[in-house]
Design a protein that fits this description.
The chain is 30% helix and 21% strand. With 96 residues, the protein is α/β, with parallel strands linked by helices. Strand 3, helix 3 and strand 4 form a beta-alpha-beta unit.
């Protein structure tokens, strides 16, 4: 059931224009939904959902951490700086 919810969440978010980014040495790289799903299933990744709390509570990808962009301080993120951070939102504007 959890796997189905992950897949459904990913598909729903992708249909409303999800844009997924990961940080790396050269800047920001866009990845597709299938790549994210594969990484969620096979790797331990940091996935930030930058939507507001109400949006996040309405449905989110299992394992995503809610970090609303309106209150996010990217310089103080408690994650390793040398590992990718995957950032998602509803349309891709906030995650960019």
């Amino acid at each position: 059931m959890k796997k189905i919810m992950i897949i459904v969440s990913i598909l729903v978010l992708s249909t409303v224009g999800i844009v997924i980014f990961t940080s790396n040495e050269s800047g920001i790289t866009k990845i597709d939904v299938e790549t994210l799903q594969n990484r969620l299933e096979n790797e331990k990744i940091t996935l930030l959902d930058v939507r507001e709390v109400v949006e996040y509570e309405g449905g989110h990808i299992e394992g995503a951490v809610n970090a609303p962009l309106s209150s996010l301080n990217a310089t103080e993120l408690p994650y390793p700086k040398d590992e990718p951070i995957y950032v998602i939102c509803r349309s891709g504007n906030r995650s960019a």
